[in-house]
Amino acid sequence: MLMPKRVKWRKQMRGRMKGKALRGAEVSFGDWGLQALEPGWVTARQIEAARRAIVREMKRRGKVWIRIFPAKPYTHRPPETRMGKGKGPVEYYVAVVKPGRMMIEVGGLSLDEAMKALKMAQYKFSIRTKIVTRHDAVAGE
Amino acid sequence: MEKIIIKATKRSVIGKQVSVLRRAGQLPGVIYGHNVEPVAIQMDAHEAGLLIPRLTSSSIVTVDLEGKKIAALVREKQKNYIKGNLIHVDFQAVSLTEKIRAWVQVHLHGVAPAVLDFSAVLVHNMERVEIEALPGDLPERVDLDISHLAHIGDSLHVRDLVLPENVTMLSDLNEGIVIATSTFAEEAAPEVAAVESLEPALVEKKKKEESEE
Q1: C-alpha distance from residue A103 to each of A19, A38, A67, A128, B125 (Å)
Q2: Tens-digit pLDDT profile for residues B146-160
Q3: Are B124 and B68 members of one domain?
Q4: What is the mean pLDDT of chain B?
Q5: Most exposed of A54, A89, B3, B18 (fewest Cβ within 10 Å)?
């Protein structure tokens, strides 16, 4: 699963997810992409599950680009512990996703294959997503 | 290409208030250029929404600003990524006698043998190139024949583009436009248990250790 190699600080504050994605909202590498429609934390496990679902559906054809990286540590207090005694241990890593963010891209597939693969990936995420083509999502052009 | 005329009026509403205009079916924009005072404008969102998405960044349009006709390029289209509609448009007024810089789309045509024979994937790295020309000479798009991509690893560069006369290329000639890459090969996924036990190294700690040494 994806996780940072080095971090400056082991634990982070939760933060807010205001607004829309200002960057990374276009299909830049492949022909089709999966775009987030709502803000949320996408876990490394979900990204890996989606990647595997796509690869399985592609049958070793085409190419996948993962455009998000789980860099934010998620901490969780162990069960039945009292309050205090500091912040809980890091459980896993998440990617902070804002609406519009292109999460995954695929290329080198036919339309049907790409739709099917991305549909399988959609089921793996905890946020609403939509499938876009390169020219739907390009803003500058 | 047919002459495209976009009707616009001057806009007095600026800043965050323009969202009121958008709700009223207007599309805010701005027109600026060399020797032209910048003017905030507004257009009918439905009409503009039908015309502007068809335009490339090198197509010349005529903006009819309250009877005054201005030749312009669509410099920037701001879009709502979720809904897909336009939220703001920048027009650059051009003089037909002055050379301008513009970004032109690269259009791939033909079939790459690498895709047919080796199931390669074409990665289109560069969608637009920057050129300089008189507004009248600006091409709508630049065509690139990809039938030369015979093997995996073959690529086409900016230098391979054939430009019309009177057009100068400004982009780096050695920059790649399209490359035929091998298809995705699933690498062995690491063991979950092994990964979970790994913790990322702390940058601060590493520095401290180095200083102690």
Answers
A1: 17, 12, 5, 12, 18
A2: 888 888 888 999 998
A3: no
A4: 84
A5: B3
The residue among B55, B79, B95 that closes a domain is B95
Tell me, yes or no, whether B91 and B9 share the same domain: yes
**Closest-CA residue in chain B for A34?**
B82
- Decide if B107 contacts B58 (C-beta within 8 A): no
- DSSP letter for each residue of A67-96: -----EEEE-PPTT--S-SSPPPEEEEEEE
Which ranges constitute the DSSP H helices of chain B?
Answer: 18-23, 45-51, 113-118, 192-197, 203-212
Q: Are residues B105 and B176 in the same domain?
A: yes
- Whether B190 is covered by a domain: the verdict is no
CATH number of the structural domain spanning residue B13: 2.40.240.10
Distance CA A86, CA A81 (A): 11
Question: Which chain B residues are closer than 8 Å to A10 by Cβ?
Answer: 199-200, 202
Pick A1's closest partner by Cβ from B105, B192, B201: B192
Give the predicted TM-score (pTM) of the model: 0.81
Residue B87, amino acid: I
> Residue B159 sits in a domain of what CATH number?
2.170.120.20
When CB atoms are compared, the residue of A64, A92, A100 closest to B81 is A100
Residue B206 in any domain: the answer is: no
Examine the domain organization and report whether B77 and B143 are in the same domain.
no
Contact B136, B99 (CB under 8 A): no
| Domain region containing B29 | 5-95
The verdict on B213 touching A (C-beta cutoff 8 Å) is no
Q: Give the count of Cβ contacts less than 8 A between chain A and B.
A: 89
| Assembly ipTM | 0.72
pLDDT of residue A105 exceeding 90, the answer is yes
Q: In chain B, how many domains are there? A: 2
What torsion, rounded to 10 degrees, do the Cα atoms A3, A6, A7, A8 define? Answer: -170
The tokens describing B170, both together, are: 């400004």
Structural domain ending residue among the three candidates B57, B80, B95: B95
Interface contact A1, partner B, CB < 8 A: yes
